[in-house]
Amino acid sequence: MTRKTTARSDAVASIIEDWRRERPELDTSPLEVLARLHRTYLRYSARLTAAVEAHGLSVAGFDVLTALRRAGRPFRRTAGQLADSGLISSAGVTLRIDRLEKDGLIVRERDEQDRRVVRSRLTEEGLAKIDALFAEHLENERRMLAGLSPAECRQLARLLSKLERSITEADRAERDGG
Predict the structure, then answer these.
(1) Does the pTM exceed 0.85?
(2) What is the 8-class DSSP label of residue 2?
(3) Which of 130, 112, 126 is nearest to 52 (CA)?
(4) Is 68 buried (19+), middle (13-18) or exposed (0-12) by CB count in 10 A?
């Protein structure tokens, strides 16, 4: 396959080519990374959602169950701790907990010393479900990464970590007026 044929089959390359034709004065190099990252994320998200929903869960519920599982025995956390462990608000966690409790995957327990403190805990059913689902999830991710060597995966992980820091720093600078 020639370079030109590869570029045509690559939607991002086609978009960049269009912008270079229409606005040659603009530096479209950020698209090389961020448009590909966005398209990759959309595909990843669709596969993740399909796999999780096949088990009767939402991705949001999956996030709560994995956070509880990662906590270790007795697999419990407060809503605030769950929010801190992910990318969601305490209010968002509460809605997810309601659904998971209704489904019998978690229970709420009041702290014996301070009744104001409520923790969510995995039930045996919840533990079995997340253990099975997470193993499937990792296998799904392995299949998605099969086109990369282990060294390429490590390199990509380092670069994505660096990209995340760069975006965080840009957000901070913008917030601070710089």
Answers:
(1) no
(2) -
(3) 130
(4) buried
